[in-house]
Automatic annotation (TrEMBL):
Residues 30-127 form the Rieske domain. This is Rieske (2Fe-2S) domain protein. Gene3D superfamilies: Rieske [2Fe-2S] iron-sulphur domain. One of its GO terms (molecular function) is metal ion binding. SUPFAM superfamilies: ISP domain. It comes from Herpetosiphon aurantiacus (strain ATCC 23779 / DSM 785 / 114-95). CDD domains: Rieske. Keywords: 2Fe-2S, Disulfide bond, Iron, Iron-sulfur, Metal-binding. PANTHER family: CYTOCHROME B-C1 COMPLEX SUBUNIT RIESKE, MITOCHONDRIAL. PROSITE patterns: RIESKE.
Amino acid sequence: MLISSAFSAGQFWILFKNWQRNQAAAPPAQKIANLADIPVGGMLLFRYPNEHEPCILVRPDENTLVAYSQKCTHLSCAVIPNVAENKIVCPCHQGYFSLDEGRPLAGPPQHPLPRIHVEVQGDEVFATSVELRSI
């Protein structure tokens, strides 16, 4: 009976945290950089929606920007983009994600990287929201 009660309390806690996350206001848009500061094939590190959440912004070609949480979905190691191979690499456990979609390609990660939505307004790039995704 004790195990059953603990399991129910654990499930309740997960449901409560999910509800709480859904009730939270969306984070405000935040300027990341000027578009001219991000070279084609380059990347930029930033933090969003707060100073505790490292993110990467990658410009694989002239007209494309993609941004993701920099924490691997396996054990939160910092991921690194490899634009030439169209991958994001987790060096800790040889995990690989698609640069285009953030979905896992190989290794231990089972979930896609959280996507950071970005908008270009004039010559400025803004982070506008975080999308938590599942496969």
